[in-house]
Every structure is written in C-alpha cells, then in structure tokens.
Specification:
With about 325 residues, the protein is mainly α. The protein is built from 16 helices and no strands. It has helices at about 1-10, 15-25, 30-45, 45-65, 70-75, 80-90, 95-120, 130-145, 160-180, 185-195, 205-220, 220-240, 245-250, 255-265, 270-295, 305-320. Helix 6 packs parallel to helix 8 (about 130-145), helix 10 packs across helix 11 (about 205-220) and helix 11 crosses helix 12. It is globular, with a radius of gyration of 19 Å.
Length: about 325
C-alpha cells in the first residue's frame, strides 16, 4: 500500500533497515510491515520478541561490519535469518544467561552463511531464503551437547525411531475426525491462524492474525497466498491422517505458507497459473516435511523451514526450464 511505503521511507535508515529485516521473514521489504510483525512477536511473548530483536540487530550489524552489499543490507536481506534464529534457539534450548550470547553468535553466523549461499546460488538466480537460518540453527542445536552452560529444552524433539513415534501418535490422528461435529470451526480457525504464527515460532491465534495483517499492508496477494497456504497445511494433513496435535498447533502449515508466498507471489510472475503452481508446491511441501521429519527424528532435530526451502528451490529450478513459467 502506498501509505505504508511513504511511512517506510520516512523512518530513519538504521531503524528502517532493522524493521525491513523483520518484514523479510514473509518476503515483505516494508518497515511498517516489519513493525507489525515485531509487535506481534512481543504480544506472543516478551522473550520471543527480545530474542528476535537481538537476532535481527546482530545479523544486520554483522553484515555491515563485514562490508556486504549496501543495497542488500538496506532491503533487510541480512536481517530476517537473524530474526528467526533468536526465537528458534529460545524455543528449543533452556533459557540461561549464556543463551543470549549464543543467539548473537548464531545470528552472526547466519549472515556469513547467507553471504556464502548468495554467492553460490547467484548464477542460477535462486534465493538462499531461510536456508542460512536452518543450517545455523541445526548446528547450534547439535553443538549444545558439548557445552555445560547450555542445555536442550523440553520442546526440542527427542531422538527416536520414526516407527515408534508414528505408533504413539496414531490415536491422536483418529481423534481429529471425532470432533468434526463439535467445535469444528473453532478448531480449524485456530489451526489455520497458528499455521501462520508458527513461521516465527509463535503459538498464538492473535499473532497469526497480526502477521496476516502485516503481509496485507505490503501485498493483498501475498496475504491471500499465506492464508491459502495455512489452509492447505491443515486440510491435507487431516486427509492424510497426520497427528491431530501437530495439525492444531499449525506445525504442518507454516512451511506451505512460505512456499505458496514464494512461488505464487514473490519469485514467479503473479498470475493465475503461478497461483495454481504455488498450490501444488504447498501440497508437496507437506509431504516433504513429513519425510524430512522421519529422516531427522533419529538425531532429534526439528525440520524448521527446510521443507519450504527445498520445495521452493526445486520449483524455481524447474520453472526456469519450463516454457510456461520461465
């Protein structure tokens, strides 16, 4: 929206860059949208908001000190991975004073990884997106076992055999259909909204609604893609018989949200054809997430946004070879 761009340009440059970095989590180069996202995170939890703030500042300052492209820094491209790193580490690790230093170091590393991947992927015109965040957090989550001052939190998945975990959740999948005649709208509404909020690790309906509002400020099509992605992330897992608890928490939806926004709005020409392609990509992201979850279960690591990254890369590479999408 034009009014938001006017406000964006009027904000002092350092603050504008930081807020754009937060906005870029949902591909929004808009400080007003970033401010809405940041407020939403603080509404969801002060610790998560502070962690995101520390992360985006650390990664952005690191990019500036390392002499990265001024245009990329100004667009917030070196801030969004750090924005995700902070809440992620505070979600999966025990909250200790040392964890704040850990977040700063991880955010700095995400900047270095992003710069390296941008260099590698530049000839193919493929974005690194959130892959630096994923790779950095995986390494820092595994490294925590070597440090006495840090410990894994209760939310971090415990290592186990995929078949055993599947058997334990079978009853939960069946119980989803048992509520189809009671409280149906509430359950679906909650799952869809949380599917959007979980992109930044927030388990909150209000945060999800604020995220959608922030995206709509930048682009209505982007908000529609995000909403449809969240709906796909609920409908498809229900049809496939996934764990009801995971569906209700939005944990199957946040990756399709990003995938559909990337394919249907950001990186391909926004047409009806690209919207349909985005829908297909969103559905396949769920399958990819389930597969990666089984693959990572033995080492106790979460999938994070890697299913989105992997599917987006494949679809963008494929689109460049197609006479319809290139």
């Amino acid at each position: 929206m034009d009014w938001s761009l006017t406000i964006d340009k009027a904000i002092p440059r350092p603050l504008r860059i930081i807020l754009r970095g937060v906005g870029q989590v949902f591909f929004c180069c808009n400080a007003v949208t970033g401010l809405v996202f940041l407020i939403a995170l603080y509404v969801g939890g002060v610790t998560a908001g502070l962690a995101a703030t520390v992360g985006v500042i650390s990664s952005t300052v690191a990019a500036y000190l390392l002499g990265m492209s001024e245009d990329d820094i100004d667009a917030g491209l070196y801030g969004f991975n750090g924005t995700l790193v902070g809440p992620c580490l505070f979600l999966f690790l025990e909250n200790t004073p040392q964890l704040w230093l850990y977040v700063v170091l991880a955010s700095i590393l995400s900047t270095v990884v992003l710069a390296a991947l941008m260099r590698i992927l530049q000839p193919y015109n493929i974005p690194a997106s959130t892959s630096p965040f994923v790779l950095t957090c995986w390494m820092f989550l595994v490294a925590v076992y070597a440090f006495d001052g840090l410990a894994r939190g209760p939310v971090l998945p415990a290592a186990g055999v995929p078949m055993a975990i599947s058997a334990a959740s079978a009853a939960s999948a069946d119980s989803w259909f048992a509520i189809s005649t009671t409280d149906t709208l509430t359950v679906w509404y909650t799952a869809i909204c949380k599917g959007v909020s979980e992109v930044m690790f927030a388990d909150s309906v209000i945060v999800g609604l604020l995220f959608l509002l922030g995206i709509a400020i930048t682009s209505m099509r982007g908000a529609i893609m995000a909403l449809v992605g969240a709906i796909v992330g609920v409908v498809v897992p229900v049809c496939l018989g996934a764990d009801r608890t995971l569906i209700e928490m939005g944990l199957y939806a946040f990756n399709p949200v990003l995938t559909m926004m990337a394919v249907g709005w950001v990186f391909l020409k926004p047409t009806m054809g690209s919207a349909l392609l985005a829908l297909l990509a969103g559905v396949l992201t769920i399958i990819c997430q389930a597969g990666l979850a089984s693959f990572l279960t033995p080492i106790g690591l979460p999938t994070l946004t890697f299913p989105f990254v992997l599917v987006m890369w494949m679809f963008l590479f494929a689109a460049s070879r197609s006479r319809y999408w290139s």
